[in-house]
Amino acid sequence: MTPEFITMIGKETILVVLMVAAPILASGMIIGLAISLFQAVTQIQEMTLTFVPKIVVVMIALLIFAPWMMELLITFTTDMITSIPEFVR
Question: What is the phi-psi region of residue 43: left when phi exceeds 0, alpha when psi lies from -120 to 50, beta otherwise?
């Protein structure tokens, strides 16, 4: 195992983590920004107003992106398992 090989695995792992987390985090951030803007305009400062829509939007995003996320994770895991012989050399 060379340092370049380990760096490649680390880079690929971080890329997969970012790709899997990005749709969920982006949807939560966008709805959070919209709710904050709504609260600033209407001066409604209800704490539950921020949590319930975020939960709903994140769950919907998870349902929409789950097949793609699973495919990405399965591909990454398969690649890691098939490259085990290269790890031991």
Answer: left
> Residue 55 and residue 62: Cα distance in Å, rounded?
10
Residue 33 in 3-state DSSP? helix
Query: Would you say residue 15 lies in a domain?
Result: no
Q: Please tell me the distance from the alpha carbon of residue 26 to that of residue 79, in angstroms, as a whole number.
A: 27
Query: What is the structure's pLDDT at 84?
Result: 87
* Predicted confidence (pLDDT) per residue in 4-52, tens digit: 888 999 999 999 999 999 999 999 999 999 998 998 898 888 877 888 8
Model confidence at 54, pLDDT cuts 50, 70, 90, reads very high
Number of structural domains (the chain) is: 1
Buried b (16+ CB within 10 A) or exposed e, 37-54: eeeeeeeeeeeeebeebb
Return the half-sphere exposure (C-beta side, CA atoms, 13 A cut-off) of residue 30: 10
